[in-house]
Amino acid sequence: DAPMPVSVTVTNTGEMAGREVVQVYLTREDRANVSVPRVELVGFEVVDLAPGESAVVDFIISPDQIGYYDETGEITFPDVGEIGLSIGGGQPGYDTDDGAAATRIAFRAFE
């Protein structure tokens, strides 16, 4: 399996310089076993932006971040399933009064 590139554009809509910690989470509703996390932080980047400035933040999700370790310690992947991908200023479902939010994107990872 190949790495999966993910990009997001972050914009400072305020009147002052600001800093944002852009976070990427994988969420799994169906887990192979209890050791597979339901919500997992797989990347983050700190971005400093002037008022009105935008920046594209790039991440690479590697196959081992999508897979899990089985009872023998070997990395493995489910035969079929969906994994949620959330990118934003907080954990999945995080919203603030200033409009910061994490967006969940479901994709079929295995077929």
Give the tags.
single chain, 111 residues, 4-stranded antiparallel β-sheet, 1 helix, 52% strand
In short:
The protein has 111 residues and is mainly β. 4% of the residues lie in helices and 52% in strands.
Mean pLDDT: 82
User: Helix content range of the residues, please?
Assistant: under 10%
Name the structural class: mainly beta
Can you tell me the overall shape? elongated
Number of strands: 8
Largest sheet: 4 strands, antiparallel
Query: What letter string, H or E per element, gives the SSE order?
Result: EEEEHEEEE
Count of helical segments? 1
Low-confidence stretches: none
The strands making up the biggest β-sheet line up spatially as 3-2-7-8
Gyration radius from CA atoms, angstroms: 16 Å
The amount of beta strand, in percent, is over 45%
- End-to-end distance, in Å? 12 Å
Can you give a write-up of this model?
The chain has 111 residues and is mostly beta strands. The protein has one helix and eight strands. A four-stranded antiparallel β-sheet has the order 3-2-7-8, with no helix packed on it. Strands 1-4 form a two-stranded antiparallel sheet. Strands 5-6 form a two-stranded antiparallel ribbon. Strand 5 and strand 6 form a beta hairpin. The longest helix has 4 residues, at 63-66.
